[in-house]
Amino acid sequence: MAHVGTANQGLVLTGRGTGNLTSFQVLGTDSGLTEHGIVLAQGNNPFTATDEMADGQILIGNTGANPSPATLTAGSGIDITNSPGAITIALTGGGEAVDSFSVQSGTNPVTPNAAGVVTLHGALVAAGTNPIRSNGTGSHAITIDVQSSQAIAAEDSTKVGLCNFNSDNFQVSSGGFVELATMTNGQMIIGNTGNSPSIGTIAGAGIQVGTGAGTLGLTVIGGGVVWNYITDATQEVFASNAYVAARAGTPVVFTMGGTNFGDYSRIVGRGTGGWRLEPSGSQIFYFGNQQTTVTTGYLESTDDHDCIELLGIGTNEIIVISSVGNITVV
Questions:
Q1: Which of 8, 190, 219, 306 has the fewest CB atoms lying closer than 10 Å?
Q2: CATH code, domain with 319
Q3: Using CA atoms, how far apart are residues 26 and 32, in angstroms rounded to an integer?
Q4: What is the sign of the dihedral through the CA atoms of 303, 304, 307 and 312?
Q5: What's the Cα-to-Cα distance from 177 to each of 174, 180, 273, rounded to whole Å?
Q6: What is the pLDDT averaged over residues 128-140?
């Protein structure tokens, strides 16, 4: 081999092709490999190089083949930012990873299982002092407990709880507003020993019950007559009551209450409007040899000072035992 001289440190003797003299050069000079690529060994074959790699690319293995430049793929909840010579991996939203949950009672802390899952449940529990609480019911499970309601002597926010309402006595709107159940005139909530109160009405021997919207009147049958001065447009007639119809312009429309044998009442004209007496339900008024039409009939004054005196002679049967004036019978 001919003497080629001496070389500086780091240089290697390199052939330069047929007809050209060998020379000392830096390894890789004029290699023909991709600029900025990564050199890969090929066993007994010449080296090769990857393509130039973009920001954030890394070499990822391919079984039985050369590794390939590629970027990382972000999974669920992960954000990846590539930059020259750097890869930044973070949770989406800038949050922190959660590795456990601290709860109020039970197993504490609760941690995700191998799949990263914590199971949440809901449950109604006995009344206590925590309206809502988190309860560890296993290593990887949390139950949100809501307590049931309880009877207490005074308001206490720690005793709040879920409850139901008796549909016989209460109604609840779609917005959760609780009201007494709809009741007819005269109904009330009445105690029922050993059971919940019930909606009912008052009744009794010798008592006449008069009802109205939000009102209740009790009259002792057979007692003295109570006189009432009426200027309203309507009035219910009760037993043992007498009424002076003192309305001007339009008549006072009286409605007969429930009648029993011996019920007594009077109507006396006073105002220019006069009066009209209408039945309740299937009541019939007898006036001499005339009687009113069931349901739609009535008695009516024709003069300011017309009067009638009434007596119950049976269920839904009332007779006029005296009158003043010319009474219209329909």
A1: 8
A2: 2.60.120.640
A3: 14
A4: positive
A5: 7, 10, 45
A6: 86
Q: Give the contacts of 137 (CB within 8 A, at least 6 positions apart).
A: 106, 107, 121, 143
Task: Give the Cβ contact number of residue 107 at 10 Å.
Answer: 16
Burial zone of 204 (CB within 10 Å; 0-12 exposed, 13-18 middle, 19+ buried): exposed
- pTM value is 0.39
Q: What is the mean pLDDT of residues 94-106?
A: 79
Q: How many helices (H) and strands (E) does the chain have?
A: 0, 30
Give the number of residues written for the chain.
330
Write out the residue range of the structural domain in which residue 253 sits: 207-329
- Residues near 319 by Cβ (< 8 Å), separated by ≥ 6? 285, 286, 287, 310, 311, 313
Examine the fold and report which residue of 140, 159, 178 is the final residue of a domain before the chain moves on: 159
168 lies in some domain: no
Q: Which residues contact 122 (CB under 8 A, 6 or more apart)?
A: 143, 144, 146
